[in-house]
Design a protein that fits this description.
Length: about 425
């Protein structure tokens, strides 16, 4: 089976891995997402595997070690090209980890040149003259300048990446990209001759990414957001096809668990409530108070859900607006509040699956990580897209004595307002 693997991908976070896998599937590849580095060989036919790490904000050396372990596993499966995937807002700390992981992978692959571009025009991430735009504003005006872990205060990616790299960082600008493959290849040779090891690439449209794709054929390592993925499968003779996203038929009960407090998720919660379907809000202060007196809030929530599940999807959510979140964080502490809610929602997700839920929507990146752990999921086959960046998956699990379930992991700000209803219609 190993020799069939074309593209081996390493993603620095969890919902980001799914986002990449989704783009590869839409371009025709059969994709498996592994949760962490697998401890056994790939046992499912796949054109690409995305190894999902949680390395974005780890200490640099740990991020490098995990990424190299993922590389070795992917190489053992026969991967012909390696794709290091990071966030489309280039989320990194002053030390990295994008630059150091890129250089460690280059060294391990014996590669002297790679590209770097977080461009993802479908989600309004564009790169122009080396500067990253989020919608109509520069990265450092997009809100990302206030991110708690990876504040992005400079939109000039050449400068940002150079600060993280030992090798010289250069630029392949939009004028070159507009001329297509041979101009891009010429520019790469010129940069190489100038001693450049990593080049940021402009891309302001999907057409740019499709022109870039052929120029990346045979490049041992590509580093990018998920956007570049749309232009790579054609290099392996793969064309978009609906068969790549075929999942087993959906069965069982339906539920949504939401711990995301992002604006889009809050709108999705309200839209679901307005459909008249059952929804239960969990307040972190109530959870903490219940815990203090030994009350089992998970069991109570599951008892609420059980009789309702037979009639259609139910929603269990802790999602709240920024003021409410700040107030809770003020009383419980930021990390403690997050961990308490994640633990509770993960236990509820597991309980729902034990009650027969086999179609589960989880909203929130951290929340997804907690639920995937609780459900002991090791691997997911990526299916059809619900909204940009969010596909249905079929997850393998031994939890609750079952083989698998349909799962979608929605990153906070992704998805239209009707996502929580639309997701189930899409699967049917
Ligand atoms: P997103 O993808 O929107 O960032 P995450 O799940 O990654 O969502 O992050 C949301 C964080 O907020 C989680 O740690 C979650 O446990 C926490 N959280 C959820 N609801 C609340 C709430 N009502 N008050 C405080 N924190 C909350």
């Amino acid at each position: 089976m190993g020799a069939t693997l074309l593209l081996g991908c390493i993603a620095d976070d969890f919902t980001g891995a799914t986002d990449l896998a989704n783009n590869l599937v839409r371009a025709g590849m059969r994709v498996v997402q592994a949760i962490g580095v697998p401890d056994q060989p790939l046992d499912t036919p796949a054109d690409a595997v995305v190894v999902a790490l949680k390395s974005r904000t780890l200490p640099v050396n740990d991020a490098i070690a995990q990424s190299l372990e993922a590389l070795r596993w992917l190489q053992a499966q026969g991967a012909q090209q390696i794709y290091f995937k990071y966030c489309s807002t280039f989320d990194s700390t002053a030390q990295g980890n994008i630059g150091p992981v890129t250089e460690a992978l280059m060294a391990a692959l014996g590669s002297d040149f790679t590209i770097a571009t977080p461009a993802f025009p479908d989600n309004q991430r564009t790169v122009f003259k080396g500067h990253l735009f989020v919608g109509d504003v520069l990265l450092n005006e997009s809100g990302m300048q206030n991110h708690p872990l990876t504040p992005m205060t400079d939109a000039n990616l050449v400068r940002v990446l150079q600060a993280q790299c030992r090798r010289k960082v250069g630029l392949i600008d939009y004028k070159v990209v507009a001329q297509g493959e041979s101009a891009i290849r010429d520019r790469i040779e010129q940069l190489r001759a100038d001693g450049v090891g990593v080049a940021v690439v402009d891309a302001i449209s999907n057409d740019d990414l499709m022109r870039l794709g052929p120029a990346l054929k045979n490049m041992p390592l590509v580093t990018a957001g998920s956007g570049v993925a749309i232009g790579l499968p054609a290099n392996f003779g793969i064309a978009p096809s609906s068969t790549a996203s075929v999942l087993p038929a959906a069965i069982g009960l339906q539920a949504v668990v939401s711990g995301s407090c992002s604006l889009a998720t809050n709108r999705q919660v309200q839209a679901f409530i307005q459909t008249g379907r059952p929804a239960l809000a969990l307040d972190p202060l109530q959870i903490a108070a219940a815990q203090a007196v030994g009350k089992d809030i998970v069991a109570e929530t599951l008892a609420w859900a059980e009789p309702l599940l037979a009639q259609g999807p139910v929603l269990i959510y802790s999602s709240a607006d920024a003021n409410a979140v700040r107030s809770v964080q003020g009383q419980l502490g930021v990390e403690a509040a997050g961990a308490l809610v994640e633990r509770t929602l993960a236990a509820i997700a597991l309980g729902l699956v034990e009650y027969g839920v086999r179609q589960l929507v989880v909203a929130g990146g951290e929340t997804s990580g907690a639920c995937v752990n609780a459900l002991a999921i090791t691997q997911m086959k990526i299916g059809p897209q619900i909204d940009p960046g969010v596909p249905w998956c079929h997850a393998q699990t031994n939890a609750a004595g079952i083989d698998g379930l349909h799962l979608t992991l929605k990153s906070g700000n992704f998805g239209t307002d009707d996502f929580f209803s639309k997701a189930f219609t899409r699967l049917a």
